[in-house]
Amino acid sequence: MTDDDERELETELARLQQEHRDLDAAIDALHQSPAPDLLRLQRLKKRKLQLRDRIAFIEDQITPDIIA
Known about the structure:
- The protein is mostly helical and 68 residues long.
- The chain has helices spanning 3-32, 38-62.
- Residues 6-61 form a coiled coil.
């Protein structure tokens, strides 16, 4: 992996982590509302899980494999 590739992955990782935090805040706010929109809540949670999977994948790409 070249330095440019790694930089791009780190940039995408930072963006995805920020979006994940934003979704977390939105989900919390929706839970606090008197009549939460359950469909919207479900969609936000699904998107958050997709982000978590993508973040894990990118972190695996950035971290070098160590052969023990």
